[in-house]
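(Structure overview)
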Amino acid sequence: MIAESFLFQILLLLVLAKALGKVFDLLSLPRVVGELLAGIILGPSLLNLITPREELEVLAVLGVVFFMMSAGLEIDLGRFIKYWRQGFVIAVMGVIVPFTLGYCIGIAYGLNFIQCFGLGTSLSITAIGLSVRVLMDLRMLRTRVGLAVINAAIDDDVIGLILMSVAFSLATEGSVAFHTMAFSVLSSALFIGSGFLVTKYVCTHLKVRLFVDKYFRSPTSQLVLAISLAFLFGLLARVASLHEIIGVFIAGMLLRGLLSWKVEGEIFDFTFAFFALLFFSYIGIKTDLRVITQISDLILAVIVAAFVGKILGGFLGAKISRFTNGEALIVGIAMNSRAAVELAIASAFYSLGIFTLELFSAVVLMAAVTSIVTPILLKLVAKYVTVT
């Protein structure tokens, strides 16, 4: 049947995501919200015309690769590294506050230690893809606020890795496997450090650019080089126990000094005409709101804690890093979005019998609400704040 055709499903996603993105843009709201909403409408939550499937998952992975490579192409490595200290402080505060709130909510509702720890972990991790997209739409990605947020999101990924390792060790073994956790953290730090050093070398040595100009002269050759490096860095990030988007983002910064303006333009055009639409709409597809049987006090508490924890944590971290009140508020809001990682953690805990259906539903709804509301909040606040 045509409704079950893979190509038909892609067509539906592209058309509705583009249309709703345009509508939200005309309403002075972030396009990404319309793209997320397209997936929710077409997915299991409402019309159930499209369900998560392996083929769409592959395209979504390609989507995030191209999107994060495009984001990296916009970032100057020197300015990015300049704000790593601020990013680290923001990341630490942006994890401590929501984790503590999540853990305390678990205690208040009579959950056991592992459930409390899992809930705190689920509230602590930022969805870097959504944050980057909104900052790009607002033309704030290259500002010191945007660079601090991206730094914080990368550090957040490493801290989240530690929390997830502890949580799953507790869930499966009843104790923390410190040697496994230490290896993962060490390999992550080694990859990030090496990636920045390689990128700095490539961007500052003319011989590398001349080599690319000589042996990758045509736009097609440069495009193949860009895609190959993006996949290589993504794969290496996975080996280092990090999310692949961290590696792809670093690859994008490396490619910034190598590609011609024409090839960069082609990457941007095709990314936002196809891959980005599929990636963000597929997040909506995977957010199945049918698991929410009723809105309980626990679910409301988790959602409130998610907003308060991340925004307050990011705000405090930014203030410690000497941002203005307005800039600090933007940082806190930008760190508030959650998506696929939280859903994956919640699903794993639910399958292990750690999370109850109500607790699983709370995390699912929290991820959906923060993903949709955060871009709107960010754009509204940005109207009244001068960002440098």
User: Anything to note?
Assistant: The chain has a mean pLDDT of 84. The chain has one domain: 2-173+263-382. The first helix runs from residue 6 to 26.
